Amino acid sequence: MGVVSVLGNATFGARPFPAFATRTTPVTRVFSGMQPSGEPHLGNLLGAWVNWVAMQERAECIYCVVDLHAMTSPAEHEPETLRARTVELATGMLAVGVDPERSILFVQSHVPEHTECTWLFNCVAGFGELRKQPQFKEKSEGRGESVSVGLFDYPVLQTADILLYHADEVPVGEDQRHHIELARDIGQRFNHRFGEVFTLPKAVHPQAGSRVMDLQDPTRKMSKSQSSEKGIIRLLDAPQQIEKKFKSAVTDSAADIRHDRAEKPGVSNLLEIFSGVTGTQVETLAAEYDGGGYGPFKQAVADAVVERLRPFQDRYRELEGDRGEVAALLARGAERAREIAAPTLERAKQAMGLLPPGQA
Ligand code: TYM
Fold first, then answer.
1. Is residue 69 in contact with ligand 1, taking CB distance under 6 Å?
2. Which pLDDT tens digits describe the chain residue by residue (360 residues)?
3. Known active-site residue 221
4. C-beta neighbour count of 339 within 10 angstroms
5. Domain 9-209+322-352, architecture per CATH
6. Is 264 a catalytic residue?
7. Looking at domain 229-318, which of 1.10.240.10, 1.10.10.60, 2.60.40.1820, 3.40.50.300 is its CATH number?
């Protein structure tokens, strides 16, 4: 199956999406993004993508490959790699089930309103509140004065991403909670000073998997940039690799299987992953596997993850051969995104007192 059939033989020509372009219907609007900063992993899938896909059933969804954010990562980015990863991540989003017919899928840098709106918000956001952001503190640690202004301003760009689309809900992992709160604060401050322009969003986290931990160090989150090869399950890992990584996952000394993040972080993480990929409650799984030892439990988690990833991996392989279609789809997505973002930006500029061209 090629991309065309995945896309339902879509034509990318002028197709109106009135419900998206105007806010005449009381439908929930969803926005979320992911950085093309490395291969997506199990944390990305369970923390974000599972909800992205599910929310398409009940909301207008807008999903974005946030390439401008990826440029702020402390390790200098390689231009070639960034380009390749942008396409790969968009392909991953399609493979996981983002439906470009129903939802808008686009690349952040294709919609210049994001950067322009960031400037407006830069003049509303406070230096102090940005400096306190946990992700900035973590990523800038030990880097002294060489930290880029982009890294500092990262959450303001994220605020623009969300508010430009009047998003009500933002499906993300637990680590993004502070960024979404900041977006609310900035939006609220703007509305208070300049009039009601922006909708205030709220974060939506999954029941299980909102914070998937590193398999080798279950006190740290699984991360593209910080996890070791053995600590991370990449979504395109081969089944044997996945099995090996789960077998060597760090657990605890007592062999009981129960959920207790403080006492048993390793086992609790495995239970949450198991729950996230199967949809079965953590407590049910714990009751089923307790008493059987870690070996069979780890094997069951590995098998469930392999099964969950199989359709994603198959779909990804089909799609990756058809870059032209993916490019066309992203171009169409950017057009649709601009139809929403441009009028919002215009209203914000006017509210702030910027003179519209041609007026005096
Ligand atoms: P990013 O690219 O780091 O991660 C993408 C999504 O994956 C979630 N995630 C996790 N969830 C559970 N366990 C983990 N170990 C884990 N690691 C990552 C993240 O919470 C996120 O939902 N700042 C965002 C990107 C962004 C964005 C936005 C998100 C830019 N603009 C607007 C929402 C709305 C980020 O760094 O995601």
1. yes
2. 333 333 333 333 333 344 565 445 579 999 999 999 999 999 999 999 999 999 999 999 999 999 999 999 877 789 999 999 999 999 999 999 999 999 999 999 999 999 999 999 999 999 999 999 999 999 998 888 889 999 999 999 999 999 999 999 999 999 999 999 999 999 999 999 999 999 999 999 999 999 999 999 999 999 988 889 999 999 999 999 999 999 999 998 888 999 999 999 999 999 999 999 999 999 999 999 999 999 999 999 999 999 999 999 999 999 999 999 999 999 999 999 999 999 999 999 999 999 999 998
3. yes
4. 16
5. 3-Layer(aba) Sandwich (3.40)
6. no
7. 1.10.240.10
Question: Which phi and psi (to 5°) does residue 264 adopt?
Answer: -135, 70
- Measured at the alpha carbon of residue 288, what is the angle toward residues 264 and 47, in degrees to the nearest 5? 55
CA of residue 173 to ligand 1 center, whole Å: 6
Please give the torsion angle defined by the CA atoms of residues 153, 31, 25 and 189, in that order, rounded to the nearest 10 degrees: -20
Q: Which amino acid is at 36?
A: P
- The residue extents of the domains of the chain are 9-209+322-352, 229-318
**Among positive and negative, which fits the CA dihedral 61, 33, 39, 47?**
negative
* CB of 38 sitting under 6 A from ligand 1: no
